[in-house]
Write a structure and sequence with these properties.
This protein is α/β, with parallel strands linked by helices. 38% of the residues lie in helices and 20% in strands. Strand 8, helix 6 and strand 9 form a beta-alpha-beta unit.
């Protein structure tokens, strides 16, 4: 399609987002000089009006908190992957004007693990609950052959994670957050909590840790990731996830594949170093 093409990331807060850096790096590498990618501060209340105000130059949107569930009623269709966790992080506007929702967090997690040679584990642990934790469970459905320990705060979160496990076909065993240190001995630990939440666990990293997938990319490295690395454990970081899910977004929005993984990662690393 000729002419200006637009895309952007929406959320609140949004100023910290690295998505523009990654997508613009991909456009430059692919020679898409008529494509632009911006960021907009949009909350749940403003989302319907924002979508209604977009013209035919728009190709797609990336969505972050708090919009991943709020957008679903505003779409014409969503993929099976997005439906499985009731979370959409990608909207593509089709040529016939439809709004199609997808979730690239789940395949992005799987790709980030596979890039490090992690195809199968016998058990795993997830730290935290919420949208990212449910995406982690969906990824583990493809990677983990045994039980997944979910470390959460409160009975409400525990019930949520059990329900997600049943829905996704994952054997979820719920543990209280106070016992999270014991879960660190799992072959694969996925930390989905906000900044600072796992700092106290750094002192409890096992002597011979397995793999840590910490979804944060700022601040980086986290205290847990630093302690994990110092014990010789493998660490997959939030930038790995961010790059892999953005790569899939670029491919879906532009129709060009493969997207340039190396250039996108290099741009993300440079932007984080400059902060």
């Amino acid at each position: 399609m000729s002419g200006i093409r637009r895309a952007a990331v929406l959320g609140s807060p949004i100023a910290h987002s690295l998505s523009p850096v990654l997508h613009r790096a991909a456009y430059a590498e692919l020679g898409l000089d008529h494509w632009s990618y911006d960021r907009f501060e949009v909350d749940e209340a403003a989302l319907p009006g924002f979508l209604d105000g977009l013209d035919a130059s728009w190709a797609g949107l990336s969505l972050t908190m708090p919009l991943k569930r709020a957008v679903i009623p505003l779409l014409d269709e969503i993929s099976a992957t997005a439906a499985s966790v009731e979370a959409v992080n990608t909207v593509v506007f089709t040529e016939d004007g439809r709004r199609a929702g997808d979730n690239t967090d789940i395949p992005g997690m799987i790709a980030a693990l596979r890039e490090r040679g992690i195809d199968k584990v016998e058990s795993a642990a997830v730290l935290g609950a919420g949208a990212t934790a449910s995406s982690a469970l969906a990824a583990l459905a493809a990677v983990c052959s045994g039980p997944v320990t979910a470390c959460v705060r409160g009975p409400g979160r525990a019930a949520e994670m059990r329900a997600w496990g049943e829905r996704l076909g994952v054997d979820v065993v719920v543990a209280d957050w106070a016992d999270a240190a014991t879960a660190l001995s799992a072959p694969l630990v996925i930390a989905t909590t906000p900044a600072g939440a796992t700092d106290a666990l750094a002192a409890s990293v096992p002597k011979t840790p397995g793999i840590l997938f910490d979804v944060l990319y700022e601040p980086w490295p986290t205290a847990l990731a630093t302690a994990w690395s110092s014990r010789g454990g493998a660490v997959v970081g939030g930038l790995d996830l961010l790059v892999h899910q953005a790569l899939l977004q670029v491919e879906r929005m532009t129709g060009r594949a493969p997207a340039p993984l190396g250039a996108m990662r290099q741009a993300g690393e440079a932007a984080l170093t400059a902060r």
